[in-house]
């Protein structure tokens, strides 16, 4: 069960995180990684261009006074002229509970949110009729099936809007990679940018799929295929099949903000392609580092909690452990 930022057990390290750390330690040196971290921007800055903000997780975060705004400089550059987007980042979309525009749900204590769907304009996913019925049934009766509740790796684009910051690395070398490492669920992505084709056969499906990237001007474009059907886009049971295809665009607008878009298609589930958009903001917290994220796979309490909630129980009256 998720513990977000509360507990970081020193004895529990997920295998995927260990693999990511090993890979990064063996990778070519990343320029600038030995230097002190540069000033970084606060999370939840601005709303995405062309898309709604709001939803869960408001501007300024929890507690304390808002930090004074630091004027952002131009996009940083690597020696090869490509954008240097290394550092720690936070997504500011507001679609953590639901990527769709939603009304408040008192039963589970969630307020209304604008979500992050920008196409269609109504903020709703263009489900086929049977798929919308399934989404409603999942959200009302089967929230135990939420992938994050079982400590699974988040899918794409859900991983990008995770609850914690993530780090971007761009190792030097001829191959060309962009590496993204999240604190949340120890998610990570290793994205080749050297023009290679997809490597997985069509019958192999992974939690984060098979990404390949390239640069279009300053935009990092990532084509992701071969995801499995075990992840959701959010907590509200918005789902996909194993035929999902996602094309992402990470476009740096200045040194502290990346405009993110994801075009999603899945002919098994949706009537047409649709798009999400939000901003990703540099984390300004001095000395920020990813910490170990603890998630207990097989936690029995999650089954009881979600079962009682699905039967109409008020979360405030659930048994205390």
Domain count, please report it.
1
Rounded to an integer in angstroms, the radius of gyration calculated over CA atoms is 19 Å
Question: Based on DSSP secondary structure assignment, what is the total number of beta strands?
Answer: 10
What series of H and E elements makes up the topology?
Answer: HEEHEEEEEEEEH
Class from helix and strand fractions: alpha+beta
Q: What is the approximate shape?
A: globular
Low-confidence stretches: 1-65
Sheet having the most strands:
10 strands, antiparallel
What percentage of the residues does DSSP assign to strands (E)? 15-25%
- Kindly state the percentage of residues in helix: 10-25%
The first-to-last residue Cα distance is 14 Å
Mean pLDDT: 76
Alpha plus pi helix count: 3
Structure description:
- The chain is α+β, with helices and mostly antiparallel strands.
- The chain has one domain.
- The chain contains three helices and ten strands.
- It has helices at residues 15-26, 129-141, 300-310; strands spanning 87-91, 117-119, 166-169, 177-182, 188-192, 210-216, 219-225, 245-254, 257-265, 274-282.
- Strands 1, 2, 3, 4, 5, 6, 7, 8, 9 and 10 form a ten-stranded antiparallel β-sheet that branches.
- Strand 9 (257-265) and strand 10 form a beta hairpin.
Write the layout of secondary structure elements.
Blueprint: H1 15-26, E1 87-91, E2 117-119, H2 129-141, E3 166-169, E4 177-182, E5 188-192, E6 210-216, E7 219-225, E8 245-254, E9 257-265, E10 274-282, H3 300-310
Antiparallel strand pairs: 1-3, 1-10, 2-10, 3-4, 4-5, 6-7, 7-8, 8-9, 9-10
């Amino acid at each position: 069960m998720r513990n977000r930022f509360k507990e970081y057990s020193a004895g529990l390290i997920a295998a995927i995180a260990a693999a990511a750390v090993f890979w990064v330690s063996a990778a070519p040196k990343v320029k600038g990684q030995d230097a002190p971290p540069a000033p970084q921007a606060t999370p939840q800055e601005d709303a995405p261009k062309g898309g709604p903000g709001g939803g869960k997780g408001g501007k300024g975060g929890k507690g304390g006074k808002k930090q004074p705004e630091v004027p952002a400089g131009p996009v940083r550059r690597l020696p090869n002229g490509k954008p240097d987007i290394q550092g720690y980042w936070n997504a500011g979309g507001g679609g953590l509970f639901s990527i769709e525009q939603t009304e408040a749900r008192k039963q589970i204590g969630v307020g209304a949110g604008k979500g992050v769907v920008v196409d269609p304009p109504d903020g709703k996913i263009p489900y086929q009729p049977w798929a919308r019925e399934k989404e409603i049934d999942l959200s009302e009766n089967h929230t135990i099936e939420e992938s994050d509740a079982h400590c699974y790796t988040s899918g794409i684009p859900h991983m990008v809007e995770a609850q914690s910051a993530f780090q971007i690395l761009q190792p030097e070398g001829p191959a060309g990679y962009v590496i993204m490492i999240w604190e949340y669920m120890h998610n990570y992505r290793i994205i080749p940018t050297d023009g290679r084709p997809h490597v997985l056969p069509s019958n192999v499906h992974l939690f984060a799929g098979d990404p390949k990237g390239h640069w279009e001007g300053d935009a990092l474009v990532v084509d992701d295929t071969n995801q499995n059907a075990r992840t959701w886009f959010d907590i509200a049971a918005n789902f996909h099949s194993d035929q999902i295809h996602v094309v992402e665009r990470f476009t740096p607008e200045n040194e502290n903000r990346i405009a993110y878009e994801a075009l999603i298609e899945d002919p098994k589930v949706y009537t047409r392609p649709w798009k999400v958009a939000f901003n990703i903001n540099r984390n300004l917290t001095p000395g920020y580092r990813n910490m170990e994220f603890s998630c207990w796979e097989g936690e029995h309490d999650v089954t009881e909690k979600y079962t009682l909630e699905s039967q109409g129980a008020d979360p405030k009256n659930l048994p205390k452990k």
